[in-house]
């Protein structure tokens, strides 16, 4: 009598001890049948010890038996007594046992519900006589090796989500209770029962981005930090401010280039509303960059494509159409002009 657990790390085939532990195996099989374990997380993994699952809340405090689901009104159906058999021990890796919960407030006794664990090493005799051994992994020991090597937090939960994707019942000798059809969903769930914030199974936290993409992200972060600083000192109304799309930022100017020179050069692309070379407020010297505001965005775009790296007064200028926050770092209170084209 077997079940197949399809996990995010690989498959596990479990042979069940249906004769030695009939109630435990029936509970496990019927929970599998109603998709109770589908998308459950392995929420507790201890290296060379065990990996625990079967709690939909992934907290270690949830879970219930199939009889509790069939009879929600019963106050003592959440757990059932553990079937501990002295001959069944945790001698080999891949031993499957039920976790035993303590008695809860309002309940006469604790016992087994839905939580189970799989041992990740041989001869863990500490667990003998304390938990119900009801199965053994017969295929998928390599999956257990992968599970044993995962990185976990201080509470033992893997940083990367490891879940039971699906359960396939290969053989079930127990007849279904009449009430089972009433609680069985029409299909397997598509959303995990717990609200996990873990690394997704298809996400690689060690993956590296292309160099160009890393540089773009670095520039964006630096620009955002500069904008936030300028917001704090009052140079920007808010950090995410963005100038109009009809404004060109021109830099690498020759210090001798004047406002009227730039306006004459760029006016062939359309009507210019404002053209200003930024100068030091105290000395009046050019800071070698300027802002040009066109009447239409299309004119600004044309100027952007045509004037990049063009010689102006023996200097190759640089033109940027959509101004990022970083140039604002140049616009401190002692050098910004009385009026800028992005100010209302």
From TrEMBL:
InterPro entries per the UniProt record, alphabetical:
CRIP (IPR035542), Cyclophilin-like_dom_sf (IPR029000), Cyclophilin-type_PPIase_dom (IPR002130), Cyclophilin_PPIL4 (IPR035538), Nucleotide-bd_a/b_plait_sf (IPR012677), RBD_domain_sf (IPR035979), RRM_dom (IPR000504)
Catalytic activity reads: [protein]-peptidylproline (omega=180) = [protein]-peptidylproline (omega=0)
Q: Where in the cell is it found?
A: Nucleus
Domain RRM residues, every copy: 246-324
Listed EC numbers: 5.2.1.8
Classify the main location.
nucleus
Q: Which PROSITE patterns match?
A: CSA_PPIASE_2, RRM
Ranges of Polar residues composition bias in the record? 189-198
Record-level Gene Ontology MF annotations: peptidyl-prolyl cis-trans isomerase activity; RNA binding
Whether Nucleus counts among this entry's keywords is yes
Its biological purpose? PPIases accelerate the folding of proteins. It catalyzes the cis-trans isomerization of proline imidic peptide bonds in oligopeptides.
Record's protein name: Peptidyl-prolyl cis-trans isomerase
Whose protein is this, by species?
Roridomyces roridus
Upper lineage? Eukaryota, Fungi, Dikarya, Basidiomycota, Agaricomycotina
